[in-house]
Amino acid sequence: MGQIQQTENSKDVDVQIIQDMYKKFVLECPSGLLFLHEFKRFFGVAATGEVSDYAESMFRAFDRNKDNTIDFLEFVAALNLVFRGELEPKLRWSFKVYDRDCNGYVDRDELKAIINSIYKIKKGTKKDEDDFQLTVDEAVDRLLRAVDTDNDGHINMEEFIRGAQLDPWVLNMLQLDMNPAGWVLEQRRKSAQF
Predict the structure, then answer these.
(1) Partners of 105 in the beta sheet?
(2) What is the pTM for the complete model shown?
(3) Of 2, 74, 112, 176, which one is least surrounded by beta carbons within 10 A?
C-alpha cells in the first residue's frame, strides 16, 4: 500500500498513486510537458471528433499558465480538483472548459458546442438517458434563460456559478461537464482495453 498523507483540506493523498501518475506522465512526456496531442493520446482520445473537442476544452482548462502545455503540477492540481474539489472551485474550472476562447464569457456558441459534445459522449456510453429529454438547442436556451441574469447574451463566471448554485436543473446540466473525473477514468479504461 502507498503512503497516506494529510493535506490542508484534510483529504488523504495516496503518495503511491501520485508516484504512479508521475511515472506514467514522464513515460508519455519525457520532456516533462504534455502537449495537446500527447494529452489526447494519454487518455486514448482520437485526434478528431466530439470527444476530441471535449478533450481540447479540458486541456485548455488544465493549462493554467496558458503556455499550451501541461506540466506535472498543472496535471495533478487539475485532477485533484476534479476528483476531490469543492463545488465552487469545480464550477470555476468547469467555466474554463466552457469558455473556449478564454475571453471571460461563455456565449451561445460555446455553450452549444460543449453541451453538444457532452450529449454525444454520454449517448455513446448509453448512460443517463434522462439527461437528453431536451435537444441541445433547448438545453442551451433553458440554460441561458436561467443563468444569463443581465440578458446580454453571454454568461460570465459569476452568473455561471450563481446559476448552478441556485437552480438544481442548471447544476445537473453543468455536472455533465463537471465530472471530467468520470470521463478520464472511462477513457483510461477504454485505452487499456486496446
Answers:
(1) 156
(2) 0.69
(3) 2
Question: In angstroms, rounded to a whole number, what is the distance separating the alpha carbons of residues 18 and 25?
Answer: 10
Place of cell 472551485: 89
Instruction: Name the nearest CA neighbour of 187 among 79, 94, 80.
Output: 79
| All cell numbers assigned to 25 | 506522465
CA 174: distance to chain centroid? 10
Q: What gap in Å lies between CA 108 and CA 101, rounded to an integer?
A: 12
The count of residues in the chain is 194
110-156: pLDDT as tens digits: 999 888 877 776 665 555 555 557 899 999 999 999 999 999 999 99
Q: How far apart are CA 107 and CA 99, in angstroms?
A: 8
* Rounded Cα distance, 155 and 148, in Å: 5
Query: At 149, which amino acid appears?
Result: T
* Interatomic CA distance for residues 177 and 10, integer angstroms: 26
Longest dimension (CA), the chain: 53
